[in-house]
Amino acid sequence: MEYFLQQLINGLTLGAIYGLIAIGYTMVYGIIGMINFAHGEIYMIGAFISLITILLLGQLGFTSVALILMVALAMAMVFAATYGWSVERTAYRPLRGAPRLSPLISAIGMSIFLQNYVQLLQGARVKPLQPLIKGGFTLMESDGFSVTLSYLQIVIIVLTVILMTVFSFVISKTALGRAQRACEQDRTMAGLVGVNVDRTISLTFVMGAALAAVAGLMVTLYYGVIDFYIGFLAGIKAFTAAVLGGIGSLPGAMLGGLLIGLIEAFWSAYFTIEYKDVAAFSILVIVLIFRPTGILGKPEIEKV
Amino acid sequence: MANAALLDVEHLSMHFGGLVAIDDLSFVAREREITAIIGPNGAGKTTVFNCLTGFYKPTVGRLTLHHPEGKRYLEQMEGFRIPRHSGVARTFQNIRLFPQMTVLENLIVAQHNMLMKASAFSLAGLFGLARYRNAEKEAVELAKYWLDKVGMLDKADWDAGNLPYGDQRRLEIARAMCVEPRLLCLDEPAAGLNPRESLELNELLMHIRDSHKIGLLLIEHDMSVVMEISDHVIVLDYGRMIADGTPDEVKNDPSVIKAYLGEEEDEELPEEVARDLAENQGGPNDA
Amino acid sequence: MGGGREFNAVAVIKDAGLTAFVIAALALPLAGFHLADSPTGLSVELRMDWVGYAAAVAFFGRLAINILQGTLLPRYAEGISAGSARFSHALQRYMFWIGLVLIVGAVILPFSPIANRYVLDLTIVLLIYIMLGWGLNIVVGLAGLLDLGYVAFYAVGAYSYALLATHFDLSFWICLPLAGIFAATFGIILGFPVLRLRGDYLAIVTLGFGEIIRVVLLNWYTLTNGPDGISGIPRPSLFGMMEFTRRPKEGEVAFHQFFDIPYSSEHRFVFWYFLILVLALITNFVAMRLRRLPVGRAWEALREDEIACRSLGINPTNTKLSAFALGAMFAGFAGSFFATRQGFISPESFTFIESAIILAIVVLGGMGSQVGVVIAAIILVLIPELIRELQEYRMLAFGGVMVLIMVWRPRGLLAFREPTMRLYHPDKDRGEG
């Protein structure tokens, strides 16, 4: 029972991280109908920038953990957003009217480019970080196994909830959110009624990138080690999460993320750890066979 | 003697969640007749087609197609099996050609099932056996026949996407005929056509009815087409049938007029509007 | 557009400045700082000169592009576009001959003076990718199915071949077809549940399958030897009769003995070269032939409009399955060749990046275009191999080139479709008004 609870906590934390990345995928897919393959790399870049900021501030003598984390968060979000914006401008915007596969190939190329870019600049070795936030609550104990909820896990989950609330608010109540939803439904018409389509799309990418950067910071703190390759695997899983939850749906992305996180945690705990990466995919295939548009996705009625 | 019944629609209803798109519709479409389905926008006409051609599964109802080899119940058949086994072909409201393939290729694709059988699932084709080569020749001949009928024989090698609008509509009809159907369903074939093209369309459809002895089912808004060529008109409004008869009967049916034009206004016009109208009526036409 | 616009120097400089600023911002966190190993863990070092260089390159590069676009290009714009239109038309008309020349060139290559072991080896690798590209072309180019996991079938082919050859001691000529059948069966099993999914969902699911295969191969130690791979895969002989070794096995005749020529290790390479060339050409010919048959036309029609296909009585699931299975089969053949040539296979050769490269070859070449696949393979595979000294930058350049070509030519390099059937002579008007 205790073991189960611990896996539940771990799974939810991991799921929150995946969910934040998944939101970026789902927003971009919703608005321009393409899979942003390079999104995982934005997450990785966010992780690297967080790491560099944290180490730099430590080197400069700052000791307040709260201050360091807030500055790292800000830096990661700002710079990752810049990367997200630039990627959209160079690799996707020129291909907006092109056949479906072209932006996909461009995205894959961009993903490869960014991976190797970071690898060349920072080296291929893994980068470790000493834990910054230590300790936590012990929820219960029995037979020498204690269920712990670490402070870091609380920070991650609380931060995710805050961000989710903010984003849901933005989507449903602000002009930007309305513009986004308009572009999702009919881009041409939205342009005709005065929505600045280019700017709306750019902002979507920027927002998704910022969230991915937060996830990058979280993963740096949580796992304590990053490398240039983490974007690929997390990216696929996060996209799987977005599809699982119903592509185009923000709550779906977070739900999918949580599910994937839980699946991974429970699979590696109760079955085998080698196949944990594959568990998520297998679940996705099974879900898609029975619900082709994902869990919270709107079933598409063919317009003939 | 009346023509034989070709399509029997019995108590067709289509619900989308709480929305009732079609409500207990029954009618008969006959061979060698053009049956038109008309009605204001949103009356459910295309929904009927989609039920007939397997794109929607009817909530309730029986759709019987009388095929020489036996009755076919369309509501039970999977989409692509309907053209294959029941001989029901259709065109679409928003033209659905294969734009990057040529005009000729579009018509050859329509004969896919015949050609697949002849090629023994491509094996006969791979080895260039005569059986396939002859079938392909026949297919080209049929394509040429219909291209000629729609007046596009010289554009056979054009990419379908490069055709002008009127030609695209006619190509879609030619393609549907290459399926060698028993029932041809046309969804707004006259949409966007100018008067001359509409006349040509009328001739084409009447020729199909008379020379090929099939039944046609037509959704149309263009009354010059409907009244000219239909043998039988069905009027839908809000998913329900409100009239069923010959064009003349339907034209004068008060409930049809009401559905299209609305009731007469009994209320008085507001003062200012009445005054304006009176002033303007005396205006520009005075000598 | 003639020279109507004035050349606004201030605007151009501002634009270049903006570009430089963005590049500097991008470079700042990752290039300006460097994570270095130090005795106490990682430390951050400054490297701001790199940021300066990046900004400078961005500024002058953008300036140069703007100047070119503003001054030279408009003057020659019409000439350039007319010239390139004429070039495309000529290319289209003589495509058949171009293909023929390439094939003839490929056949005589081993006998030409430039052929040595290195060159042959390189072209063998190129031909494997071309064969995979032609195979994937059936799935993606003709049928329009988004397959991001093609490497899975390549792997199944390679491993089935390896296992059959090492455990059952069957000859290459038996194992090859068997491996292809395995791969095709695999394609059907995989395809059946997922092919009715919408395009992008199919992409992520096929991507997932590719990864699943790789992880399974890596971890199912008893079957596949895991990361150690399978070694000792026997080399093929010429129709089971002659070997290519210096000292043949008991009772068998060696190739050089049979033809009474001195032994050279090159013989084996030439044999492999022709073997892959023949396999690739078979892939090409079968695909081209099927394209003219109803099944191939159904693939292309399905790609254009699935709903219209259904309305014509075409079974979309079966049609997609046939494309998928056929593509898988050819990947299986390619995998067999790969296994026998290397003599050793491991899961490392079957990563997602391979699927990405093959897909890039198909899309960059121009979907459906056979010659396009060859050209794209040369660009994406051959050229990086040739500039091996810059090995570190190879993948970086690879990604960059992918983006650049897509942005420059979104439909691929050779993106025109040759109709499968004509009523009239090709020179007649195709209505491209």
Could you characterize the architecture of this molecule?
The complex is a heterotrimer of chains A (304), B (287) and C (433). With 304 residues, chain A is mainly α. Chain A has one domain (2-229). In chain A, 73% of the residues lie in helices and 6% in strands. Chain A has helices spanning 2-32, 39-59, 65-92, 101-122, 151-173, 175-185, 187-192, 197-223, 230-245, 250-270, 276-290, and strands spanning 127-128, 136-142, 145-150, 225-226. In chain A, the strands form two sheets. Chain A has a two-stranded antiparallel ribbon with strand order 1-4. A two-stranded antiparallel sheet of chain A has the order 2-3. In chain A, helix 9 packs parallel to helix 11 (276-290). The mean pLDDT of chain A is 88. Chain B has two domains: 1-87 and 182-264, P-loop containing nucleotide triphosphate hydrolases (Rossmann fold); 96-180, Rossmann fold, CATH 3.40.50.300. Chain B has helices at residues 45-52, 81-86, 103-109, 112-118, 123-126, 130-149, 165-178, 195-212, 223-229, 247-251, 254-261, 271-281; strands at 5-16, 19-30, 34-38, 60-67, 70-73, 88-90, 183-187, 215-219, 232-237, 240-245. In chain B, helix 8 links the parallel strand 7 (183-187) and strand 8 (215-219). In chain B, helix 3 packs parallel to helix 7 (165-178), helix 6 (130-149) packs across helix 7 and helix 8 (195-212) runs parallel beside helix 9. The longest helix of chain B is centred in the middle third of the chain and has 20 residues, at 130-149. Chain C is mainly alpha-helical and 433 residues long. Chain C has a two-stranded antiparallel sheet. In chain C, strands 3-6 form a two-stranded antiparallel sheet. Chain C has a two-stranded parallel sheet with strand order 4-5. In chain C, strand 1 and strand 2 form a beta hairpin. Chain C folds into two domains: 9-91, no CATH class; 98-236 and 266-408, Orthogonal Bundle (ABC transporter involved in vitamin B12 uptake, BtuC), CATH 1.10.3470. The B-C interface holds B 53-55, 79-84, 89-90, 92, 96-102, 104-105, 108-110, 112-113, 115-116, 119, 121-122, 125-126, 132, 140, 144, 155-159, 162-163, 175, 179 and C 286, 289-290, 292-295, 297-298, 300-301, 304-305, 307-316, 417, 419-424, 428-433.
